[in-house]
């Protein structure tokens, strides 16, 4: 009953917390060019050889910011731009999710449609902005027609994409490709790409960045921590029951070890012992044992070792090989001598990628081992995975075939099926 009340209380607290984080923990930052650390400037295409002219429309103190632009022919892409620059600092927009714009635009267009505005967020990074010029700031843009949108226009920061024309002229390494809004230096509004010669007006009544004082990810992480802390009492009780199940599992594991039939030379399980061990493993772990990986190991040039150094040295090599494998495998992994110089490792709860990494580590261990008679002994390795009990025989066959491919490929290597 106590657990039910605790669960209900946590559910209510979680729902209230999520609502509060979304509605009552909102932070806003005005972008008006007049606030501390902000500067306002106008640019046009005259710096690029054009003839367009931008001018600030004077209004009441604290009123809207307006730019009048006379677009003239003379430049391939005529434009005027109203820029709000961060002075002495850059904006990290990681704490914000949206930008809201109370925006108006008017003027003739080539297609006869409503006037468009390009909204830019220009980011600084010393990797590509070393020259310090505005052209080297990475522009992220959204193009919209304010007259066709509800007021205010709300844009998600995730909608801003790097301008294609800038990306083509500023090739970047892969880590720097894509949007970056951690050091925004300029917020600007520019005439659109369909402007026609004539008089244009862009009026910004208000612009603000919107986000949460506590990032949703951080807040949710805190809620997860609350859940974890509140459930400690329940987990303590569950641990008591788990210990009983664990003791039972350990007894079964010891039985598995005791019942496994052993190879008389290497003192590890033989093929029949491996089969018995697998049966007990399935009884103890069942489907939890999967994915299960199988590794076949075959000593390279073992016949040559027997022919040149005798069977006694060969037996010493096999014994040391088995001991080395066993010493470098977790206790839960099964190791058996399959026959001759061939060994099998069964790794429960291990995907094939992890098994390949273990096999590669073991291969390197063999290379560092001191062998009898000063020999250099290596092995060929084949790895396969079974995802269910019915795939175990197939995995054994595929691992065996992969090991033979390792032999044919030059030995002393790991091949995955």
UniProtKB/TrEMBL annotation:
Q: What class of enzyme is it?
A: transferase
Please give the name of this protein.
Answer: diguanylate cyclase
User: What EC number(s) does the entry state?
Assistant: 2.7.7.65
Supply the PANTHER family for this chain: DIGUANYLATE CYCLASE DGCM-RELATED, REGULATORY COMPONENTS OF SENSORY TRANSDUCTION SYSTEM
Output the InterPro entries linked to this UniProt entry.
Diguanylate_Cyclase, GGDEF_dom, Nucleotide_cyclase, Rev_trsase/Diguanyl_cyclase
Ranges of residues in domain GGDEF: 290-417
Where does the source fall among the domains of life? Answer: Bacteria
Q: Which organism is it from?
A: Roseateles saccharophilus (Pseudomonas saccharophila)
Please write the reaction equations for the catalytic activity of this protein: 2 GTP = 3',3'-c-di-GMP + 2 diphosphate
Gene3D superfamilies, per this entry?
3.30.70.270
Indicate the transmembrane segments per the record. 221-242
A Pfam family recorded for this sequence: GGDEF
């Amino acid at each position: 009953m106590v657990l039910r009340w605790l669960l209900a209380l946590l559910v209510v607290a979680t729902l209230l917390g999520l609502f509060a984080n979304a509605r009552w923990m909102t932070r806003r930052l005005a972008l008006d060019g007049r606030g501390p650390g902000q500067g306002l400037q106008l640019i046009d295409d005259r710096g690029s050889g054009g003839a367009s002219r931008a001018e600030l429309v004077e209004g009441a103190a604290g009123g809207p910011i307006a730019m009048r632009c006379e677009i003239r022919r003379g430049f391939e892409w005529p434009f005027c731009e109203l820029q709000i620059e961060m002075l002495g600092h850059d904006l990290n927009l990681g704490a914000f999710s949206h930008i809201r714009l109370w925006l108006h635009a008017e003027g003739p267009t080539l297609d006869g449609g409503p006037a468009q505005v390009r909204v830019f967020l220009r980011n600084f990074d010393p990797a590509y902005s070393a020259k310090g010029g505005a052209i080297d700031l990475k522009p992220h843009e959204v193009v919209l027609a304010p007259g066709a949108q509800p007021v205010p226009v709300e844009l998600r920061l995730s909608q801003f994409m790097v301008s294609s024309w800038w990306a083509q002229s500023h090739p970047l390494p892969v880590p720097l490709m894509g949007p970056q809004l951690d050091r925004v230096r300029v917020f600007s509004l520019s005439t659109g790409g369909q402007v026609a010669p004539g008089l244009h007006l862009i009026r910004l009544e208000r612009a603000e960045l919107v986000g949460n004082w506590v990032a949703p990810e951080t807040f949710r992480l805190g809620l997860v921590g609350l859940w974890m802390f509140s459930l400690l009492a329940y987990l303590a009780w569950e641990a008591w029951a788990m210990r009983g199940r664990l003791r039972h599992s350990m007894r079964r594991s010891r039985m598995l070890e005791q019942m496994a039939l052993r190879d008389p030379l290497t003192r590890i399980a033989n093929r029949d012992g491996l089969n018995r061990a697998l049966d007990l493993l399935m009884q103890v772990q069942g489907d939890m044992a999967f994915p299960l990986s199988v590794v076949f190991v075959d000593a390279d040039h073992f016949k040559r070792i027997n022919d040149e150094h005798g069977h006694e040295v060969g037996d010493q090599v096999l014994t040391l090989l088995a001991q080395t494998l066993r010493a470098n495998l977790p206790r839960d992994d099964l190791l058996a001598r399959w026959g001759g110089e061939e060994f099998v490792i069964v790794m429960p709860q291990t995907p094939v990628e992890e098994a390949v990494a273990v096999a590669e580590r073991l291969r390197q261990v063999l290379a560092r081992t001191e062998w009898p008679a000063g020999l250099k002994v290596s092995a060929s390795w084949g790895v396969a995975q079974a995802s269910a009990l019915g795939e175990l025989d197939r995995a054994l066959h595929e691992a065996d075939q992969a090991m033979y491919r390792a032999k044919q490929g030059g030995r002393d290597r790991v091949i995955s099926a």
